[in-house]
Amino acid sequence: MFLINCPYCGERDQQEFKAGGEAHIERPKQPTELSDDEWAEYLFMRKNIKGVQFERWNHAHGCRKWFNMARDTSNDEIKAIYKMGEKPPTQ
Amino acid sequence: MTQNLRVKSSEFIDETNRISFKFDGKTYYGFKGDTLASALIANNIHLVGRSFKYHRPRGIMTSGSEEPNAIVQVNPNSNITEPNARATEIEIYEGLEASSQNCWPSVNFDIGGINNFLAPLFPAGFYYKTFMWPKSFWEKYEFFIRHSAGLGKSPNTRDPDIYDHRNIHCDVLVVGAGISGILAARNAAKNNFKTLLLDEKNELGGSTIFEANEYNKINNNLASEWLKKEINELKNTKNLEIKTRTSVAAYHQYNYLLARENLTDHLDKKNKKNKIRQRLLKIRAKKVILATGALERPLIFNNNDRPGIMLSSAIKKYSNFYGVACGTKNIFFTNNDSAYESALSLHNKGIKVEAIIDIRENSDAKIIKKINDAGIKIYWSHTIVDTRGYKRISSISIMRLSNDGTSVTGSKISISCDCLGIAGGWTPAVHLYTQSGSKLTFDEERKIFIPKADTKEQISVGSCGGDFELDEIIRNLNYKLKNFLNIDKTDFDSIALENDHETSKRNIWLLPSDQSIGKTKPFVDYQNDATAKDIKLALREGFRSIEHVKRYTTTGMGTDQGKLGNMHALGIVADTAGVKMGELGTTTFRPPYTPLTFGTIVGRNIGEFFDTFRRTPMNDWHIKNKAEFENVGQWKRSWYYPEEGETMHQAVQRESKAARKSAGILDASTLGKIDIQGSDASEFLNRVYTNAWSKLAIGKCRYGLMLNEDGMVYDDGVTTRLGENHYIMTTTTGGAANVLGKLEDYLQTEWPELDVYLTSVTDHFATASLCGPNSKKILNKIIPDLDLSDDNFPHMSFKEVLIDKIKCRIMRISFTGELSYEINAPASYGEAIWQKCIEAGKEFNITPYGTETMHLLRAEKGFIIVGQDTDGTMTPIDLQMDWIVSKKKYDFIGKRSLYRSDTMKENRKQLVGLLTEDPNIVLEEGAQIVSELNQKPVEMLGHVTSSYFSPNLNKSIALAVVKDGKNMKGKKLFIPMENKNISVTVSNTIFFDEENKRINA
Ligand SMILES: [Zn+2]
């Protein structure tokens, strides 16, 4: 059970949060211009990394805000938490 | 037969408080402070159960939670009986009843014991190999297996006890209150850390507290005496909470731990009453200090499982702590110095020790001299090759070990005994450490797995960290504590320590016998009856991974998770396969460390508190009017309102007819309501719904379909424009929370530039839906001032009105096809408004109807229910709802996916109507649909999604999804059921009032 540091509320138990999959996948601005393959890439393809992975999380039972998390999937260490729209940490 | 083996009074036992208890129906006596195990041993009872597979007689082996054999049924004659309790952990109380498990008809005469003589037929994997073939026989085999095996019986009535949960946040959690844990907790608390100290036993002090070794001294006192003083001071320490009888079950990531606090199991019936039995502690600790100690290992030799064979440390605890002798003629068998302490303890209490068998060549520990002075014979370089005694050990045979330890030589010596203490060294209790996700490393020299590294949030101290000798324990503890707590000094920096040191070591995982391995029974897992032979067989049959060997042989898979024998299993695999133990790794230790009752896990969340449920403001009226309720998500919704003697079918038919004939009323308060405001609200709706919203006039309503990005229907509902920048959206009852979450997601992450604010107002409004040809007249009676003409208040429009000064929103929308008004009142006035409608409707025979009638009425009109007629694979086109998908809009959620090659396929499953050939047959929802009856295998074309008997059409109607259904209108299909084939014809989805005349009737 993670202890997650919501950027708006502070440290809260994992059960208040909902995981929202891979982060930094932007919805295409002009979907109609995309081929089926390109659209499928956006729609279905997600990474499943062993190591540091960037994810979206939502403080569903709290402030309802979405934010990003860099998590090492091999040991569940939360490396960083940063707001939507911010760049992932380089390291 | 009963014999008193109470040898010496003990400060931990209250001999003035005599307690009677029953075991296997017979009454015995013990004292306050006894466990069931110590009290039984005091009555000279060792045989307490039968083993799982061979039904071999088994006795008490340990004095703690690692016990594999002494598993008993508590209160066996009660229907709230508890199985699988460990006699070594049950504190006796007046009136306690317990019985042996796993034996029939009695522990002394056990029919299953025949398996023991058939043992050659029961090798590892026997059940898999034999009973799985032929497959069809499994049910017959299962009957016999279940009858002769099984671990105890489960209670068969509701658990009457109270269980509780508590959240705890602390700076430092110390697990284990042996000497390391006590010193750690003391230092943490003194340095102003909010500290919690837990121990599974009822007494603090671990194994040091009953220590009697005069070579182990702290500040010139016996270690036990010194520790007792420390414990006394502990009780007055600030910042420190101590919980005994509290066992940590699980250690999750981020220092989240679950512990079970046992509050009343040790009390008699009278004192248990109305008290919380167990409490689950949910602990979030900033720092965790593991001081879980070590478990003594057995030795693996031929017939090492007879009653009377016990761990050497357990014998010491029974004599020093409980004042009970485990036998009158004791022998110890060891590979290390600790057995000598046990032997000396017994000797000093006048209990006879016949001999000590040591596989080592010698030892230079000081205690050896004491043993020699006591005249106890030591057999160096010897091993036990066999034991005798069926229900209690009676003698052992020993032989000299070869130098390489793989065989025995010389002549056999037989020694009689009634108790054998075995000491195979110590295994650090790293179970919780590994549960936390931390990694182990193998110490090849000492043959132990130890924690690989401490972290800023967690350390292991004492023997669970691999320190076994007093001076090394205290030295390392001081060093670790300073770093971990960031303190300059500890209270124990300068205490004077004296202790013996063990220098001579020898470890043999599987001790040889003069007989071939095939003829021996060296048990590795006592509870699951797995022997070294089974492990070797598994390796011969090609199993290599330790996880596979474990499952094939069932080693370590009992309720004790193999706490005693796992290391030996690993060692035997490593030796046999010729690999290093460190490379082999270890099996995973999973929570719970010791079994938890279901009651503790669920706590107070039982019965009506199992899940949250929501009731509408009109709920009391529904109850008064005898509604039957249906669960929809967390809501309790009125399902139907049966009149005297009516079945559900009759009630629904009556309600459905009444709603179309005159007037009906439905409680629609549960529909999700989302208030949408902001200058970009219209643009936002354009992006989330498939149809266009910009041109919706203020005061008008529109039905919308929401897709997922994959093009599949996600939710639907009517949205009303209340003002220029203000809308109210309704969602399905079950989808409300998810829709809000999804909309927030898009707003926050994809379109943060939009000026839109969402608020859930589901609970703020109560909704009464008036429907039927007389609904206008009823509404007119309630709000005479309002012009209800089609010009002023047309279908799909909205008015804000006052009903008795209460501001209400009325939408003229319809889910039934009838003229219909939805009155939304502030929730606290919901019941009053509802009452008013009922009163006003009396002269029109207004009929309350529930969800079932609502479903029927909408099916007559072919309106879909998302989640019933759709299942996440249906596009709007599949639903034949092309009309709602805007061709003009550049983009909306899911639009691009409607043009994928797969979603554009012509022969996808599509929503159609079905009419049965016999109008009286009502199809089963979920029934499969085929076009051929005599074909094998037959293609499943789809299934029935909604099906009712329509009283307004006087025939059966159904909706279904059928492959290429759009092109099948008029085609005959079949529904094959168990006893008959039903003929159906594909029809339009709208069965009633196709021209929509009634909406303006
Ligand atoms: Zn938050």
Features:
heterodimer, A: mainly beta, Folate-binding fold, four-stranded antiparallel β-sheet, two-stranded antiparallel sheet, 10% helix, B: 1001 residues, Ubiquitin-like (UB roll), FAD/NAD(P)-binding domain, six-stranded mixed β-sheet, 50 strands, elongated, binds zinc ion
Task: Report on the architecture of this protein.
The complex is a heterodimer of chains A (91) and B (1001). By secondary structure, chain A is mostly beta strands. Chain A has a single domain (3-83), classed as Folate-binding superfamily (Folate-binding fold, 2-Layer Sandwich). Chain A has 1 helix and 6 strands. In chain A, a hairpin with a 3-residue loop joins strand 1 and strand 2. Chain A is globular. Chain B has 5 domains: 1-160, Ubiquitin-like (UB roll), CATH 3.10.20.440; 162-294 and 428-498, FAD/NAD(P)-binding domain; 296-425 and 504-584, FAD/NAD(P)-binding domain, CATH 3.50.50; 667-857, Gyrase A, domain 2; 906-1000, Aminomethyltransferase beta-barrel domains (Elongation Factor Tu (Ef-tu), domain 3, Beta Barrel), CATH 2.40.30.110. In chain B, the strands form 13 sheets. In chain B, strands 8, 9, 12, 13, 14, 15 and 28 form a 7-stranded mixed β-sheet that branches. In chain B, strands 41-42-43-40-34-44 form a 6-stranded mixed β-sheet. Chain B has a 6-stranded antiparallel β-sheet with strand order 46-47-48-45-50-49. Classes of the chains: A mainly beta (91), B alpha+beta (1001). Chains A and B meet through helix 1 of A and helix 21 of B.
